[in-house]
Amino acid sequence: MELKQMPKNTRGVQVKQIAEHLGLSSGTVSIVLNGRGDELRISRETQKIVMDTAREMNYQPGKTQKKNQKTVRKSDGFRIGVFWNLHYMGGLLGQFYSGFQETVKQYQIKVEIVLQPFEYDHLNAFEDAFSGRQYDGIIIGGLSEKDSDYLRENLFEMPIVLINQTLENYSSVYVDDYQTGRQCAELFYKNGHERAGIVFSENRSAASVLRYNGFAEECRKCGIQLKDEWKVSGPGNGIGGYEAVKQMLQCAELPTALFVQTSRMNSGILAALRDGNIDVPGQMEIIAYGDGDFSQYLYPTVTVLHVSVSEMAANAMHLLLTILQNDLHITLSKLHVTKLIYGESFQKKTERQDP
């Protein structure tokens, strides 16, 4: 651990200054100073260095402030920060907010929800919010792989609930994305498909990477071709779906099955296939992942591996309020199981034997 020069004036030193001096995150330092290092498996060596440095820098914990803060929380309720990837600021956010509100209504306490957008791969810009006292708890949605790595490498004392991502030391509501990808490939195999394509949103979340990995691995096991030219991407909306599939249609040979990573792209995908004179489901069958509420109003209707985003949001808020109201120092999790909703784009046929 490389130490920076000790600040000359240590009067009123802050956690952030100790963290910068030691090259640690503010969250890790805060956890150690509050006596929770063993609980969150911070090494004894690191704990000793933090405590020794805090003494040398004349750190004062400010017990009165913490006591007053707890009193305010009990009487005035909770302030919840909802950190949301800018890429998902469309209609999907509205469904999540509806779920948050449904849960809040069930609690006899005031809950203030503050929306904080963040840019893809740049969640680390808000470390001060995670380590400070601005919020009582935080919910995070739309994590990229880099954002997930940032959380994995840092610890924060504040309770944080992740939506559709699982990380050690964090509470979460999630889908088994790897299994969902496998399930889609199995469905294609049982319908006799030997060539499959996939449509991604261009800003891929950590969850979508897991779905792809599960899909690709099961395709390999089943002997389904998944050529690189059949893996296309675009913005996660109808326009993005249209442009991505138009690109795929330039291929000399096309897949007979298509896995759509986000159902928000369905309308554009269907339009591109119509323009390319590709019959759905006659020449290409489609299964999409996401909220199936809107997919049933398309033509043809789309078969969806459905997960209710409003239900996930409701459960995320429930976990966080349970932790806050009961002052829990554990992580909680809730698994959501996808439901296969059949539309016209894919219908179950006579099953083949598993490979």
From TrEMBL:
Keyword Transcription: yes
Taxonomic lineage of the native organism: Bacteria, Bacillati, Bacillota, Clostridia, Lachnospirales
Organism: Eisenbergiella massiliensis
Name listed for the protein in its UniProt record: LacI family transcriptional regulator
Any GO MF annotation of the entry: transcription cis-regulatory region binding
InterPro entries named among the record's database cross-references: HTH_LacI (IPR000843), LacI/GalR-like_sensor (IPR046335), Lambda_DNA-bd_dom_sf (IPR010982), Peripla_BP_I (IPR028082)
Keyword Membrane applies: no
HTH lacI-type domain segment(s): 13-70
PROSITE patterns the UniProt entry points to: HTH_LACI_2
Annotated keywords: DNA-binding, Transcription, Transcription regulation
